[in-house]
Amino acid sequence: MSVRFGVMIEPYLGFDYEPVEQIALQCERDGYDSIWCSDHFFLDEHSVDKSCFEVWTLLAALAAKTSKIRLGPLVTCTSYRYPAVLAKIAATVDVISNGRLFFGIGAGWKEDEYNAYGIPFPSLKERMDRMEEAVQIIKLLWTKPKPSFTGKHYTIKNAISAPKPVQKPNLPILIGGDGEKRTLKMVAKYADYCNLSLTSNLKHKLKVLKDHCCKVGRDYDEVGKSLFAGWPSIFVTDSKEELTNHIAQRAKQENKSIEYLEKEFREYAPGSWVGYPEEVIQRFQYLIGMGFDYFQVMFPGVNEEVLKASQNFVKLVMKKI
Asked: 268: pLDDT confidence band, cut at 50, 70 and 90?
């Protein structure tokens, strides 16, 4: 199995643009497959002076500066842009990147952003309904000359959308989330990749996905399995002093005892991402054995801290898997 790694950037943590560009360029040189960015507007009510770049503008800028590394939102929120507009935006970024875009999409969840920006925040069911219509519309606009679609929430009529994506027949679609009744069913029906996180019961979620694939006539093995390795942020070191200091700092930030965090980092099944290289490698190998072939890794800090950590991860972990 070919295993790939991408670096996840959380713009709402307060990144500056130039360091993000340098992270992308260095990750390209270091052999990472991709750069991913979340789709948010701000972190919390205390973030007045904390920059948070709009995801599609940021991806377009990075697409123009890089040449090999793939890019994608993890994940773009269906509710923040009309599906037809989102299809146009994604196709444009794919053209700018010469066919390097991953299209990650989700139903949205961060209610304080909706409220602050005056965006309606319907029930989870309605958000999922809207997402399913959106995915269908977006795929039509990427592949058909003048498609029409009439749904409960969205309608397009003889909609012209050019340019089409460089990648054919569609951009690779990644659906984020682990909802068993709707999200994983949508993965089986429409997506090239699922995207789960460590907080899930992974074996059970993959079984649910396999069952959905069977019901819709999809080959389970053709669905890529990706994992957001972002809880907690990855911190790998071969220095006992650095590991001790990191855990002490995290304990203070999270208002937990050092003993509690050390136990949590070692026992959180199938393993957290804080530890010595051999520990973290073992945890990745366990997940690879489950069928995961793509990992989006997130490092603590912002700007130069992430640049340093991403290079360290290549040396200590990535080249040994």
From this structure: low
Separation of alpha carbons 135 and 137, rounded Å: 6
169 vs 210: CA distance, rounded Å: 24
CB 307 within 8 A of CB 23: yes
Residue 298 resides in a domain: yes
DSSP lists the bridge partners of residue 224 as: 193
How many CB atoms sit inside 10 A of residue 272's CB?
22
How far, in Å, CA of 179 to CA of 199, rounded?
12
Tell me the pLDDT tens digit for each residue of 164-180: 999 998 899 999 999 99
Is 298 a residue whose pLDDT tops 60? yes
- Look at the alpha carbons of 106, 24, 318, 308 in this order and tell me if their dihedral is positive or negative: negative
- Number of domains comprising the chain: 1
**Looking at residue 10, which CATH number applies to its domain?**
3.20.20.30
For residue 300, what is the DSSP state? Answer: S
Helix (H) or strand (E) holding 35: strand 34-37
91 is written with which tokens?
A: 């196709």
Q: What angle do CA 195, 198, 200 make, to 5 degrees?
A: 80
Asked whether residue 216 is domain-assigned, the answer is yes
Q: Taking Cα atoms as reference points, which of 74, 99, 105, 69 lies closest to residue 164?
A: 99
Q: How far is CA 235 from CA 137, 294, 299, 313, in A?
A: 40, 19, 7, 8
- Tokens coding 7: 């670096």
Would you state the torsion angle of the CA atoms of residues 46, 199, 21, 166, taken in this order, to the nearest 10 degrees? Answer: -120
Domain of residue 169: give its range.
4-235+273-320
pTM, whole model, 2 decimals?
0.94
Distances (CA, A) of 245 to 49, 89, 200, 304: 28, 43, 29, 19
CB atoms within 10 A of CB 100: 23
Report, as an integer, the average pLDDT of 101-110. Answer: 98
**Residue 207 in domain:** yes
